[in-house]
Amino acid sequence: MKGSPYPVREALRGGVPVVATDVVGPRALMVHGETGIWFPPCRPTAIAEGLVELLADRVRTCAMANASRRRFSELHAVDLMASQIAALYADVTG
Q1: This model's pTM is above 0.85
Q2: 81 in a domain, yes or no?
Q3: Strands (E), the chain
Q4: Is residue 1 part of a domain?
Q5: How remote is the C-alpha of 76 from its chain's centroid?
């Protein structure tokens, strides 16, 4: 997951719903509405409203927390990482 935003990965690993701007990095790691929520750039009001919604809905927040942990495990499964490293070496060595 080189180049992915570290805070998003750590939130997923810790089972914390992600609240992020809808840009390439977070979009590649999280699933909107499942592991967290994202918003268009430069919309602080939308982000604040999303945070309030999450804080008010404990059931949804807990479901997102569990989904975040699962997503992290899927992205960092040993066999997946091994195949990605093997592909990298194959690219480098020709």
Answers
A1: no
A2: yes
A3: 18-21, 36-39
A4: no
A5: 12
Q: Provide the domain count of the chain.
A: 1
CA dihedral for 39, 42, 44, 46, sign (positive or negative): negative
23: which 2 tokens? Answer: 């840009």
Asked if pLDDT for residue 5 goes beyond 80, the answer is yes
Q: State what percent of residues in the chain have pLDDT above 70.
A: 96
Distance CA 12, CA 17 (A): 7
**What is the average pLDDT value for the chain, to the nearest integer?**
89
Question: Looking at residue 87, what DSSP letter applies?
Answer: H
Q: Report residue 15 as tokens.
A: 């089972």
CATH number of the domain bearing residue 89: 3.40.50.2000
User: What are 22-58's pLDDT values in tens digits?
Assistant: 888 888 889 999 999 999 889 999 989 989 999 999 9
Range of 74's domain? Answer: 6-93
Let me know if residue 31 belongs to a domain.
yes
User: CA–CA separation, 29 vs 92, rounded Å?
Assistant: 25
